[in-house]
Amino acid sequence: MILHRNMSTCPAWYFCALIILMLQPAQAALAPGDLYVVGFNADGSKDFAFVVLTNVPGGETIFFTDKAVSNNVLRPGETVMTYTAPPEGLAAGAVVTITNAGTGTSRGTVTRDSVFTFSASGDQLTAFQLASVGTNFLFTLNTEGTDWTVGCEVPPGLRDGWTALHTAKHLASNADIDNGRFATQLVGTAAELRSAIGTAPFWAFSEDAAFEMTFADAEILRPPIRLAFQGFEGTAEDTWAIEQAQGAITNNPGALDKAPKDARIRSGAYSYQTENATATLILSPVSCHHYRDVTVTLYISATASNSASADGPDSNDYVAVYAAVNDQSLPSEPDIRVWGGGAASSGGARWRFSEVTARTTLGASVAYGPAGGGRRDAQGDGWAKLQIVLPNGSQSVRLKIVTKCDANDWWNVDDIELTGRPPQASVMFFVR
Q1: How many CB atoms lie within 10 A of CB 253?
Q2: Which of 204, 402, 420, 422 has the highest CB neighbour count under 10 A?
Q3: Distance (Å, whole) CA 342 – CA 346
Q4: Which residues of 206-234 are buried (b: 16+ CB within 10 A; e: fewer)?
Q5: pLDDT along the chain (432 residues), means of 10
Q6: Could you tell me the residue ranges of all domains in the chain?
């Protein structure tokens, strides 16, 4: 707001505009999905807890109520609590507990306009702010009955099963449940936490005893980013350098193969393909310093040419993936090995690139293989997405892929990627 330098000479319209601006409600700082209730008690002292998934400025006001929403507005009666963030604000991930029926809080301050009587016979707990356009609903939790009803509806702007959770409908509680809390660690990206809080297995419920409403703050992780990639296209996107490649980097899509046809290239125009050989592909060391949850991901498919003797990689054929960190030697045992057909009598197996995932951590050697031969796409055991998770603190990683197959059978490798979560950003607060 800009003030006139000499107030005594201001025109009349200036004072009118100033009054309008001063009376206008502040814009809401939060949006749906920025706040989630993670615990509630209808028994005992009626405590509840919420987590913020974004930074909240100091002095920011959030209202909580047990009023239901009917025809897009809050019903009259019941309680409204006014929560004010502490002067230093709330960092994303902070968990705040409101205690003693809305008279105390673990952070900031809270007041109420009447006694908070969150009902053991089913009730609602809704967070909202006021904005120039009206009520800005942030989140609601409903414990009453088994679904939303007329007169107890999803508030406008909220999404059923996402920012509007019904404990029986979405979290598998009893109808009119008394007490509940999120029962595992709050760790993940904001999107992952939103999903987890709306998922039944992560909650505990009780009809008899109130839960302790003490929570560790959430650790909100930044989404993974690409650190290196090799897609065999020979472009600037291929940043993970090839040290050795005994197989062929080719643009043959497999159009004449036995089914599945056109299954040798996952993306782009090229992939790494091997046939009738034991071949080694090595990618040079690449830095992953300062990143966490670093993961190697690569995709494979198993195909066969249109020959009478070809049926796909069999039980003696394999793809073996080895990873080494911090300039160590590559291990003698692979981190992941994927075999061909399930048994010699079953013949070879064939499958497309897919998201069917074989996953392990560095040094924990695992082996996967389909249960039988032939086409495996429909069976869901064509292991096509291979992942190795590196220990936090790794500085660099080098990768080796060894493939073995017979004549007219093919292993195809594409889209090798290294991802990791960046370091957490520092936070600066501004008081409103």
Answers
A1: 16
A2: 420
A3: 6
A4: beeebbebebeebebbbebeebbbbbbbe
A5: 41 40 56 98 97 97 97 94 97 97 96 95 97 90 97 96 98 97 95 96 96 96 95 98 98 97 98 98 97 97 93 95 97 97 79 98 97 92 97 98 96 98 60 43
A6: 35-220, 225-421
